[in-house]
Amino acid sequence: MSITYLEAIREAQAKALRDDPRVFIYGEDVGKFGGAFKATKNLQEQFPGRVIDAPISEDAITGFAVGSAIEGMRPIIEMQFADFSTVAFNQIVNQAATLYWRTNVSCPLVVRLPCGGTSGSGPFHSQSLETIYSHYPGLVVMTPATVEDAYSMLLEAVAIDDPVVFCEHKLLYYHLKAEKLPTEALPVGKARLVREGRDMTVVTYSAMVHESLAAAEELASDGWEIEVVDLRSVKPLDTDTVMASVARTGRLLCVGEAWPWGGVTAEVIARVSAEGWGLLDAPPQRLNAKDTPIPYHPNLWAAHRPTARSVADAARRLLRM
After folding, report:
1. What average pLDDT does range 63-73 have in this prediction?
2. What is the maximum alpha-carbon separation in the chain?
3. Which of 6, 80, 133, 275 has its CA 20 to 30 A from that of 34?
4. φ and ψ of 318, to 5 deg
């Protein structure tokens, strides 16, 4: 029996609730309704008093969770859409992120962000905000691309003492499946080599892993061997795995769904350029969403974000350099 990406997130939360009495879930409609995307479906019935509906105030939700974490609890809060977390920005980046540095008190908080675009969602329900949160010291930013990582990384997020921004991509919720959940996982901050190749490295994360793998399959028909690295988390960032891959291939393309300015793709290229310029046979390139608000119309949305076709086209341009 297969399990979806969304079900893996639900199962991870159920296991965390079973294993640790300090864990609770708090958010808008997470109780009887089961969450905006049903990531907490039936959990309130299984764990009475520990899956709690919150008022419609992301700022208050996060502030309550920060206070609970200070007092020894391990809250998981759900933002209905990643975009709404900006209402709680002060609590996340000024309170949770800095708390240990300021007070020597841990803040073991998980902020679940349903992120990324889906057709017709528009500019207020489709943003990829991992870049923004990765800017702030003190936050761990996870971006799982697989069912297995969605499960194991969420459990790790609950277990560690740092505040975690957990970016789960909405497009993967129902479309991604696995046969079983993992019993062991890579540590946080360790990237995964998901496809080996010798002609070029594609570094990516979250839903763009699957677009990049599809592009690599297309390019394989032309005789090109594309290596694909899934960062898994963008803070911390596994530069060592990236550098080792670039050393093998000599070319680097970074792909992300977020906007290009000050993004994760820019950071990867900056690190490789500073530490491994001599490894490169061509200038490193990046592919991001267009630098515009996210459009509603499905055709415009498809043109706005990277796809397997645009990744393949960008790769061909780099291979010709």
Report:
1. 97
2. 60
3. 133
4. -70, -40
Q: Which CATH number is 192-319's, of 1.10.3290.10, 3.40.50.920, 1.10.10.60, 1.10.357.10?
A: 3.40.50.920
Q: What is the pLDDT of residue 270?
A: 97
Span of 31-40, 110-119, 247-256 with lowest mean pLDDT: 110-119
- Closest by Cα among 16, 206, 18 to 108: 16
The token duo for 37 is: 């995307």
Amino acid at residue number 181: L
Which of the listed CATH numbers 3.40.605.10, 2.60.34.10, 1.10.10.10, 3.40.50.970 matches domain 3-178? 3.40.50.970
Helix, strand, coil percent values for the chain (each to nearest 5): 40, 15, 40
DSSP symbol at 95: I
Phi, psi dihedral angles at 132 (to 5 degrees): -60, -50
Domain boundaries, the chain: 3-178, 192-319
Q: Does 125 qualify as catalytic in the annotation?
A: yes
Q: Cβ distance 35 to 42 under 8 Å?
A: no
β-strand pairing of 177-178 with 200-204 = unpaired
Catalytic residue, chosen from 125, 169, 210, 304, is: 125
Q: What is the mean pLDDT of residues 80-95?
A: 96
| Three-state secondary-structure class, residue 78 | strand
Which residue has 């870049």 as its token pair? 131
Residues 207/150, Cβ–Cβ less than 8 Å:
no
Average pLDDT in the chain: 95
Query: Which DSSP state fits 223?
Result: T
Q: Do domains 3-178 and 192-319 have the same CATH topology?
A: yes
d(CA 220, CA 82): 35
CA-based torsion, 256, 252, 133, 135: positive or negative: negative
**Cα–Cα distance for residue pair 240/134, rounded to 1 Å:** 18
